[in-house]
Amino acid sequence: MVISVRMALLPLIFLLTIERVYSAADWGVSYTPSYICALKGSSVIMSCTYTFPNGYTIKKVFWTKTDVQVNNEFPDLSNDPEYSQRIQYLGDKQQNCTIRLNDVTQKDSHEYYFRFITDKPDGKWFGKPGVTLNITDLHVESPESVTEGDTVSLTCKSTCNLSDRTTFIWWKNTQSLTERNNKLLLQSVRREDAGRYSCAVHGHKLTSPPVYLNVTYSPRNVSVSMSGSGEIVLGDSVTLTCSCDSNPPVLNYTWFKEKESSAVGSGQSYSALQSGFFYCVAQNQHGSQRSAAVQVTVKGRKDTDLMISYKSRIIFSM
Ligand SMILES: *[C@@H]1O[C@H](CO)[C@@H](O)[C@H](O)[C@H]1NC(C)=O
Ligand SMILES: *[C@@H]1O[C@H](CO)[C@@H](O)[C@H](O)[C@H]1NC(C)=O
Ligand SMILES: *[C@@H]1O[C@H](CO)[C@@H](O)[C@H](O)[C@H]1NC(C)=O
Ligand SMILES: *[C@@H]1O[C@H](CO)[C@@H](O)[C@H](O)[C@H]1NC(C)=O
Fold first, then answer.
1. Which of the listed residues 105, 136, 167 is the one where a domain comes to its end?
2. CATH no. for residue 234?
3. Domain that holds residue 246
4. For 43-65, what is each residue's pLDDT tens digit?
5. Does pTM top 0.90 for this prediction?
6. End position of a domain, from candidates 87, 104, 136
7. How many angstroms is it from 184 CA to the middle of ligand 3?
């Protein structure tokens, strides 16, 4: 008899225990994910669910960004002029407390909490810890100085970690590139790779400010130009000018006359007084290059006149 009563009570005790545990755990708010890194200007959905025991009816649901009460209640974000126009409650009065915040700015980086109030005095819940929102912009990180031939990696940076599935878009000047990663690798960079690089995230308007990639290189296309034809009369001179393409600009120009081992002059221009083949060497921090030689010929009347006067002088002195 005693045994049978106990047997009958056991399931009841068990049931009551479950009921109590269940009740205590029945209040809650959960955010998935609880941390969001979002791009400036985007719309952010903060997914949220909540639970409360049976027998309660929801009176009020709202979001707040402070865990400090003002006049015995947390301030409702939808009454905040900074948020009221941008906030949209997508949830319900049952279990879904999802919210959307549009056109986010850096100032929205914050922890947000969901609050619900039921019809019973003890039936209130504050969903702390909340969901943390971190807003980022984008910027291109590139090396300070790049020389032709280097392998260069540009990175599209954000101040918080965006999802691994994020697709990036890269531009050089106004042209879009094929790279879809946050890193843009330029192997053996050429001077043509110089330009303004910017990045964005697929599906978002936000674009990073452009960053100028400055590719430096040694002088090239070194050439000499002459004032006039290169034929001069004795006593006159011809101005030779050395020009080239160089980044940074040429540090020094050196002038040579073919078949002579030492330099005949320096500076971007050189006055040639004698016949011969002249060339220049342009040099910057990265190297040097020589030009082709140009021919300067000294001849003409004065030349012969002088020869005659020389001869006559020679004759006279004899
Ligand atoms: C909550 O509501 C949002 C918006 O209607 C919906 O996208 C989401 O799937 C819902 N979440 C749950 C857990 O029901
Ligand atoms: C956002 O992320 C940055 C970088 O991790 C961190 O320094 C900052 O404290 C975060 N802001 C918030 C509100 O969590
Ligand atoms: C971003 O993620 C990387 C690796 O997953 C981690 O090392 C880094 O600390 C994270 N940065 C931030 C700002 O959370
Ligand atoms: C590139 O760098 C070189 C060397 O620092 C500098 O002289 C040059 O002005 C730079 N060019 C541009 C367009 O910024």
1. 136
2. 2.60.40.10
3. 218-303
4. 999 999 999 999 999 999 999 99
5. no
6. 136
7. 19
CB of 34 closer than 6 A to ligand 2? no
Q: Quote the CA–CA distance of 182 and 185 in Å, as a whole number.
A: 10
Q: What pLDDT, on a 0 to 100 scale, did the predictor assign at position 145?
A: 87
Residue nearest to atom 9 of ligand 4 (CA): 248
What is the domain count for the chain? 3
As beta bridge partners, residue 211 has 197
- CA dist 309 and 318 (Å) reads 14
Substitution candidate for ligand 4 out of 189, 196, 216 with most atoms within 8 A of CB: 216
Is 13 a member of any domain? no
Closest listed residue to residue 190, CA positions, set 166, 215, 165: 215
Q: Residues with Cβ < 8 Å from 36, sequence gap 6 or more? A: 44, 46, 131, 132, 133, 134
What is the predicted pLDDT for the residue at 235?
A: 82
Q: How confident is the model at residue 232 (pLDDT cuts 50, 70, 90)?
A: confident
Predicted local confidence at residue 20, as pLDDT: 42
Q: Please report whether residue 317 resides in a domain.
A: no
The amino acid at residue 74 is F
Instruction: List pLDDT tens digits, range 119-177.
Output: 999 899 999 999 999 999 999 999 988 999 999 999 999 999 998 899 999 999 999 99
